[in-house]
Design goal:
The protein is of the alpha+beta class. The protein folds into two domains: 25-156, Jelly Rolls (Sandwich), CATH 2.60.120.10; 173-270, Homeodomain-like (Arc Repressor Mutant, subunit A), CATH 1.10.10. The chain has nine helices and eight strands.
Length: 286
């Protein structure tokens, strides 16, 4: 299995996107042959991204260690080890590491997979599912044991209610200049009227442009941009208080409330570490 999710010998077709690079080391690829599931393990450095690509298999993108981010057209997911993303076959996407990570992705043959989710779907990674993925990564596993484990993995795939944080760029060139400046500094608190004086448009004109081009009022767009900027910081271990100040919130409580409204859960729940399974020794799989 290649870093772009294709069986070895069938790579290609990915398009390079600005600043992204298809450079990840393949650690292991097991389950090829009669298996319905292939496990691909890739070491990824902080800030490393694969090029945009699509493949013929369903993919469950998950990081055993570190934090992954996955982008599709218009959406970005930040995935701590407690969450994974189901990516249907044929979906163009790119994946990167927010922190040094070990990605263990599962690849499913669509014709042998009962899961039919048509769009990318976040699933919770329980301690049992985590152990099963690591179990399937064992190249010495016999066919019967692998088949039983694959069936249990499918049974463990359960969607969780979290939303993506979408902040699309407006098309209007003046609004786009404002958006670009806020991406560079999400804490900038200037009003639209103040931005208008800088880019040569009234505050009302900019407000109409944001609504027409992004589908949301400027205030909601800026909130989502700030939350989008906050997620990698939280994933990297920064405190809620530090992140709130960094992205422009007057208090941690205001930031937590905005995060919960947009995502569906507070940041402490979203980035909660996995619990140790009861009754067994916890170990990191090399």
């Amino acid at each position: 299995m290649s870093p772009e999710g294709q069986p070895l010998g069938r790579q290609g077709g990915g398009r390079q996107s600005g600043g992204e690079r298809p450079a990840a080391e393949v650690v292991a690829a097991v389950g090829v042959g009669e298996s319905a599931v292939v496990v691909g393990s890739f070491a990824m450095g902080d800030g490393q991204w694969y090029s945009w690509h699509r493949h013929d298999h369903h993919q469950l993108a998950w990081a055993e260690r570190g934090v992954l981010a996955v982008r599709t057209a218009g959406n970005t997911w930040v995935l701590p080890p407690s969450m994974a993303l189901w990516i249907p076959a044929g979906t163009e996407h790119t994946m990167g590491a927010v922190a040094p990570s070990l990605s263990r992705s599962l690849y499913y043959l669509p014709e042998r997979c009962p899961v039919g989710w048509p769009v990318p779907t976040v699933v919770g990674v329980s301690p049992l599912l985590r152990e099963l993925i690591s179990y399937l990564a064992d190249a010495g596993l016999d066919a019967a044991a692998r088949e039983r484990a694959e069936a249990v993995v499918l049974d463990q795939l359960r969607p969780v209610s979290v939303a993506t944080v979408l902040a699309p760029m407006p098309r209007d060139p003046r609004a786009r200049r404002v958006a670009a400046a806020l991406r560079a500094d999400p804490a900038d608190g200037r009003t639209l009227a103040e931005w208008g004086a800088r880019v040569g448009a009234s505050g009302r004109t900019l407000a109409r442009a944001f609504l027409a081009d992004t589908g949301m009022p400027y205030g909601r767009w800026r909130t989502r941009l700030r939350l989008q900027a906050a997620m990698p910081l939280l994933a990297g271990g920064a405190t809620v208080a530090a992140v709130a100040a960094r992205v422009g919130y007057a208090s941690p409580s205001a930031f937590v409330a905005a995060f919960r409204r947009a995502v569906g859960v507070p940041p402490g729940t979203y980035f909660a570490p996995l619990e140790k399974p009861q009754g067994k020794e916890w170990r990191e799989v090399p």
